[in-house]
Amino acid sequence: MAGKLFAIEIFLILLIGNTHVHGVITGSAAPSVPSSKYPDPRRDDSISNTYPKDTIVKDPYQWMEAPDSDETKKFVEDENRLTREYLDKSPYRAELEARYKELYDYHRYNGFFQEGKKYFSYQNTGLQNQDVLYVQDSLTSKKAEFFNPNTLSEDGTVALDPYYSAFSEDGSIFAYMLRENGSDWSTVQFKNVDQDDKYHEKLEKIKFSVLSWTNNNKGLFYSAYLDHKGNPDGSTNDSNQNHKIYYHLLGDDQSKDVLAVEFPSNSEYLLTGWVSDDANGKYLVVSVADGTGNNMIYIADLEKINFEIKGKLELIPVVTNLDANYEYIANDGNTFIFKTSKDADNYKIISVDISNPDPKAWIWKDIVPNHEKNVLEWAVAASDVYLIVCYTENVKSTLQLHNITSGELITTFDLKDIGTVEQTGFFGGRKYSDIFFLFKSFLTPGIIYRCDLSKPSFDLEVFQESKLTNFNREDFTTEQVFYKSTGGVEVPMFLTYRKTLEKNGNNPTFLIGYGGFGESQLPYFSVNRIVFMSNFNGIHAMANIRGGGEYGEQWHRDGSVHNKQNSFDDFKAGAQYLIDKQYTSTKLMTINGGSNGGLLMGACLNQRPDLFGVVVADVGVFDMLRFDQFTIGKNWIPEYGSPSTDEDFEYLYAYSPLHNVKIPDDPHKQYPPVMLTTSDHDDRVPPFHSLKFIATLQYNAKKHSNQINPFIIRIEKKAGHGDGLPTDKAIARLVDMNSFIIMNTGITFHA
User: What is the DSSP secondary-structure string of 610-679?
Assistant: First the structure.
């Protein structure tokens, strides 16, 4: 959650299938959890914190912020025991597991690209816990296994980070980034492409980093918290400070790595360095971010020091204000190309010529101007003279080819469907004429397209395609609707369902949302959605609420800081729309969100408990008064505001899920069933958020005899915020979540 420049806030959505058979709902009563069965953790009302205007707020479960204490560990075990006892009673568990394994078991093509003279691809035969990296000599030659992370751990909890691992400039050496147990902490090791391994060093304490090789293939830059004193395994909540850029010379021990860039004036800055893409790799382009996506840009001339990095680099300031986002794309000599939100809420592409020694004489130009409606999502330089530019147009991807110098539009690629091309799924560069990119939609598991930019037609070729068995996409459809929210704003929402579905108010519906950090939630593929629609005749709904980036920075600002309530209002309005238009009913509506989306779930639960049938919140941010004290929480202040300032505190306190639990006193009303999920190695949103929230919910349930709907929590072991989750753990989690929904909606599984 530290800004989309670093892809830190990777959206965790685990789609939970509701069960339904042709509109027939069984009459069996949902099993409850007697309040006496809930764990009875120590509640220390003497613990309190003082906030602005001398406001004293009790925090009786603050001791849960210590994950390694015996008391916290016991509470976790007690909660997991209760959850297992409850969920194991659910019907259809065996059928659910069999169906998920059947649908997950398809060959997935997740990336194809060229490095040096060889081609590489990420693939999964189906039920492998982690994708495998393959190598081949040509586009058509036989592939061979190059790197298989499944051999690194028996349970699949060691994951290769495919986006941030990096080959050397000549393609001869692979620097591979590994994460264990889902933690954001990473290690880096090295592998020779053509020979047996001969590099023995390991780089540690790496977090929120790209790996960028110097063009001489001798070493690389990376970002890390080498001064961090805590255990870098994701099991602690220590605040992360003093992010720095280091240079590693291949073959050296990490202790010899050179501190290349630091900004001691602000310990919360996030630093990233890219070696420029010109023929010599002349510069290091440094981004200094504050946590919102806004950042500063500095440049270091590596050629000036003959590419010998022996100490801190001399930095040339290019952008020194934190008032916009800048992303480096490419450069030709001293002319640099950036994507930016500066004076462009929908983003634009600019160039700046820094040849003149006087910065005031630098020449700034717009190459691709701000589009009035469409949001420029990302841009990449390809085949030396082109820019691949991806727009979000009404919450779907539009991919274009532009001239890199003039910005002139050359062609718009025909994607043939409403879907998404993410930057992490694009593969190409200035050295190669071929580009490859991964396209997904709500009903398309994945198509890798190839385009040879040396040919004037720019035709797309289906190079590889993932296909499910026992699923006919022609039976289903996706529609986009718009509904009104606070202030008359129209909010888009995608609905995907079986073509024969009737709007009779009797359809199970699964509604998801996020709405934060300017992150656009675009069409994506999920096996879970397929199970939900094909086996349960249900509707999957995705509301693109304010706070996200679907309509640019203004859409983001309208759902952040003091406008955060708009996000909650948008989501509630979406749920009400589905009920009013007879898609579904309250009883049959499950809502779900993860991370910032978990916060959304908690706030909407407290504000409209009567509107939803079931609430599932994953790895949520629930304590809005102490979020900034742990891991990278301080980087979220630009998004949420600071609990230590007068005005921000009032807004945060007013909606903080932990502090606004209010089970109705009316004997005929109660909160809906709630299931929280978290993980013991989540070092992005620490698990104490969920632990304190579930303890508070259960404590209030004990005081209200009318609250018979259950409150449970599932705490995953050896997992983190969601990245790198092994396939078998993903399936087990989905079976549990579906079991909870089945038990609390009274609907049945249909094979």
Answer: TS-SEEEEES----TTTGGGSTTGGGGHHHH--TTSHHHHHHHHHH-GGG-----SSTT--PPPEEEEEE
